[in-house]
C-alpha cells in the first residue's frame, strides 16, 4: 500500500518515481497516464499551473512561451501529474499556433480522462508587441457541466488584466 492506494490501483502509473525518465522533444500524447478518482461521487476541481510551457511558432520556428492553466472536474479517471509534465514538455519542438496548442491539449485530456468539465487557458508572452491568451473549455454533453462550460466561456476574462500582473 502506497499513500492510501493499493499497488493494484497504481499498476498503470509507470513514470512517477522513475529515476530513468526520458524527456521527449516532439509531441507525444501517449506519455499521459491516469489513475482512478477515489472521490467520484464528489464534484471538485483539480488545477495545474505550468509557468514554463514552450512550443514553436509553426511559421518562424521561434520559441513561444506561456503559462498554461488546466482545470478539470474529474469523472472516473484523473491525469497523473508527472505524465502531464512530460506531455507538456513534448510540445517543446512542436510547431502549432497558440490557439491550436490549447485545443490539442484539452482534446487529448478529454480523450484520456473523460472528465465532467475541463478548461485550458494559455497566457503567452508577447512577441512582436502582442500577446495571445487562448481559452477553451468543455462540459460533458447531457450533464449540468455542459451548461457550466457555456456560462464560463461567456463570462471568461471579463476583467482585462494589467501589464504588471501577467
From TrEMBL:
Pathway: tRNA modification; tRNA-queuosine biosynthesis. It is found in: Cytoplasm. Substrate binds at residues 79-81, 98-99. GO terms for molecular function: preQ1 synthase activity. Pfam families: QueF (PF14489). It catalyses: 7-aminomethyl-7-carbaguanine + 2 NADP(+) = 7-cyano-7-carbaguanine + 2 NADPH + 3 H(+). Keywords: Cytoplasm, NADP, Oxidoreductase, Queuosine biosynthesis. The active site is at residues 57, 64. It comes from the Bacteria. Its EC number is 1.7.1.13. It is an enzyme of class 1 (oxidoreductase). InterPro entries: GTP-CH-I_C/QueF, NADPH_dep_7-cyano-7-deazaG_red, QueF, QueF_type1. Its main location: cytoplasm. Catalyzes the NADPH-dependent reduction of 7-cyano-7-deazaguanine (preQ0) to 7-aminomethyl-7-deazaguanine (preQ1). This is NADPH-dependent 7-cyano-7-deazaguanine reductase. The gene is queF.
